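Ticket #4471: structure output looks truncated?

Reporter: J.K.
Steps to reproduce: submitted the chain below (450 residues) through the standard prediction queue, then opened the result file.
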Amino acid sequence: MWALPAAARAYIACAALAAALCAVPVIRDGSAVPWKAAAFLAGVCLTCARLPRCPLLVPVLLAGAFLLPPAAAGLVAVPGALAGRVGRRPVWVRRLWHAAQFSLAAAAASAVFGRLTGGAPRAITAAGFPGALLPALAAALVFALVVTLLDGGALVTAEGRSPRTAWRGPLPGALVPPLLNGPTALTMAVLWHSPYGPPSALLVLLPMSVSAWVLDRCRRERAAHQATVRALVQAVDLKDHYTRGHSERVGRASVLIARELGIHGERLEALRFAGILHDVGKLGVPTRLLRKDGPLTPEERRVIELHPEYGHEMVRGIGFLDEARAAILHHHERLDGSGYPYGLTGCQIPEFARVVAVADAFDAMTSTRSYSRARPVPTALDELRRCAGSQFDPRMVSALSQALDRHGWHPAAAPEPPEPPAPVSRNVPLDHCSVTIAADGRPARQGGHA
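Returned output as attached by the reporter:
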């Protein structure tokens, strides 16, 4: 504890003292406390606190707040908090802090619920459920606010954050959980006084635990997807440092276009992945070609033009990419059939590939590279419009233009080598524009390289 700042030590001590003072009525008038109910709920809280990622602690504490007077409701939280899992040191200081925090929150919720329902006795029946619902929601909201406010104070005293940053972000999010936890805990309280007794109240926790397990699995799967994509993008960035950051920007631009087209949900996420991973096939291209500063030979151009097929093969086994694989393979196709690798025309080109082609060309023209300076956004849009119908899908170009009018574009500057070579015009097939972007920023009618 002594490793903490003095202000944090004083703050935790004050919270613990306040929680202890809230428990004084239990000592003074212990005979009026339903000790069996308090001990049962404390045991359930202790079990929940020992389980990894268990979301049931708050509903149980709120059920205690609805069933017990404030002093006893505050004590229910103590055993679980003192024995709960803590991921960071100092362990016992954090446990003491959590005990004080949850004890104060539960006592405050119990006091609010008691005042709004007329006080003891707290035997809530099924008939009284509708009338107790609003008090339960108010008590759950008070619980969440107390926890959030106390957490913000800990951040201010322990980490030196400003009060504005400590509370501004968490407070809006604290308003959502009470909508779920309040009715759940109230249902537990009603079942508690049913003919089946306290064990039946625990049945309410079963569907919550299953739902929480499913959501946790979904979050883990999504995190694994994000980690896979990040690893592939970092590998490309390390190999071709001239285009570092390009993949992320193409992903952003692809999402802007997709939203204008009405693409949402999982398809929008898949399209973002397609934009981010469109150049993953460069991992199969020799580094010397990607970093070559002079013009490329026809043979070298043919090697680089294989990167869409390399990329498609690399991600073939990654199931969650779905439609993104087609975009990775076909984002260099052109409507007039002059693209690669298969020379597809018009609607033969998958929709995602047509979106990524426009996003890729736009970022290539608006980013500074070793062989070209960034063009202004209006100039890049004019060039895309000029090529619409022959190279790019006009719908995608129009969607990008509308999205930029609405949201603007603020790309991060792409890294450059410390000593760039003399200006040269690349004749590598640009990720898409039918123009070469020379180092002086003037377009020439040839191929280019992104």
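Triage note (M.O.): checked the attachment and the full token line is present. The longest helix spans residues 205-239.
Status: closed, working as intended.
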